[in-house]
Design goal:
The structure is a single chain. The model has no long low-confidence stretch (mean pLDDT 77). The radius of gyration is 71 Å and the shape is elongated. It is largely without helices or strands and 165 residues long. The longest helix is centred in the first third of the chain and has 15 residues. It has two helices and no strands.
Length: 165
């Protein structure tokens, strides 16, 4: 039986070995190493392992004794509430002169002058206005009578004293 199992083992070794018995006498041929980039495997998702909650019984602590703190009583003055309605009228209110406050002096605010550069307007070209000639009819003046220039008509005799005015 032992020989049968060893025979089966030898036969399995010959079949499963890639070279077998054929290449024992030849020297192995060395090929230069070929670069193979590393194979990147995607990450495998592993769901988180859920552990059942562990029950922990509550720890009971013994109560700690605290002596009561004694505070002195606080005395508050009574709150004055005016009676509902109009306030009482006292004669003192009428005799008080009104309080006059002096006016608050506010110095004038001085603003520095703002420099405004002069605005330069470019000259506007105005084409000359061509007016058509206006027809003026000749003015006709009536003839003025001019007496003939010369000696006035005097009497040939000299005037006498009686005729003088």
């Amino acid at each position: 039986m032992a020989s049968l199992s060893s025979l089966v083992l030898l036969l399995a070794a010959l079949i499963l070995s890639p070279q077998g018995l054929a290449n024992y006498d030849k020297a192995p041929v060395e090929n230069p190493p070929v670069y193979k980039p590393p194979v990147e495997k995607p990450p495998i998702y592993k769901p988180p392992v859920e552990k059942p909650p562990v029950y922990k019984p509550p720890v009971e602590k013994p109560p700690v004794y605290k002596p009561p703190v004694e505070k002195p009583p606080v005395k508050k003055p009574p709150v004055y509430k005016p009676p509902y309605g109009k306030p009482p009228v006292h004669e003192l209110n009428y005799e008080k002169p009104p309080v006059e406050k002096p006016p608050v002096y506010k110095p004038p605010v001085e603003k520095p002058p703002v420099y405004k550069p002069p605005v330069e307007k470019p000259p506007v070209y105005k084409p000359p206005v061509e007016k058509p000639p206006v027809y003026k009819p000749p003015v006709e003046k009536p003839p003025v009578y001019k007496p003939p220039y010369g000696k006035p008509p005097y009497p040939k005799h000299p005037p006498t004293d009686d005729t003088r005015f």
